[in-house]
Amino acid sequence: MATNNASPELLIVMGTAATADQTEHVVARLREAGADARVSRGREATVIGAIGERELLAGMPLEGYPGVERVLPILKPYKLVARELAPDPTVIEVDGRRIGDTSFGLIAGPCTVEYREQTLETARAVAAAGATMLRGGAFKPRTSPYTFQGLGLDALDVLREAREETGLPIVTELLDPRHVEEVLEVADVVQIGARNMQNFLLLAEVGRIDKPVLLKRGPSASVEELLMAAEYVAKEGNERIILCERGIKTFEQSLRYTLDLGSVAVLKEETHLPVIVDPSHAAGRRALVLPLARAAVAVGADGIIVEAHPRPEEALCDGPQQLPTDEFAEFAREVGGLVALMGKQIG
Ligand code: PEP
Ligand code: MN
Q: In what order do the strands lie in the sheet with 10-14?
């Protein structure tokens, strides 16, 4: 239990009509539960400062006690991922490729593994252009159940071959906890897609694995919700987490999603974890991918994850936003120039 001169974790504001007995009741419940309480009586309202273990206080139904008007948390609801816990930036390293601090990750590859040659061609092109990891979906979370859902387990074999040939570590999405073993055999970084950001059982599952997790922000999730999702992973023991801003839903329809670059700056303040940006899914069309990637570098992102395809017009998923592989080297060169200006290096 915290000592008496510790600052409170929660402020419990009693309503103006609350009786002294009601205040005493709250104080008694807190003390019974092993927390401490300090009462300040103002002219208008009485406020109780509660001091104790965060989990204990979070588990108490304080809002429901008679006379309580509001409960205000003083501390951030996340702790393991909070910058206060680790003032130095976390660097995620996979096979010598680093993301975080002064290392910028350039993750590139097809949206989806469609067939062997498409993925291998892409892998070769992005590797030659200096990408640090290969992305590629085996299990695709599609909005429509009638569209291509990915090759599943067969795609994992293709990704394995791409790694063997290019040496690039593999980033691929885990959609279903039942595939965790197979995905882990191939993935070097396990992606949790935007639609699963709050799939808490899946988060706990990847919290128990021994590989880094790339956690994408849900299109309707706040920054705090993203950090709480990361906290679920960290709480299970896996603190190797890369956060990813990939655009959110707003009233604006001119991009596929609104890329919330401000959130990257906020995340860099709030957490020690590396933060990357996915300009492809936010843009929805390839002409916007480079400008958004540039902005991501400038705002301080620790990397980008970009889609590329040898023949985007034939792609089974996200064709309009995939960069043709024969333009990828130029893209990487432009991004690399800005990365250097920021005092960082790719890789
Ligand atoms: C992806 O990166 O393949 C993907 C499906 O992205 P998101 O989860 O951000 O929609
Ligand atoms: Mn895609």
A: 36-41, 46-51, 10-14, 68-73
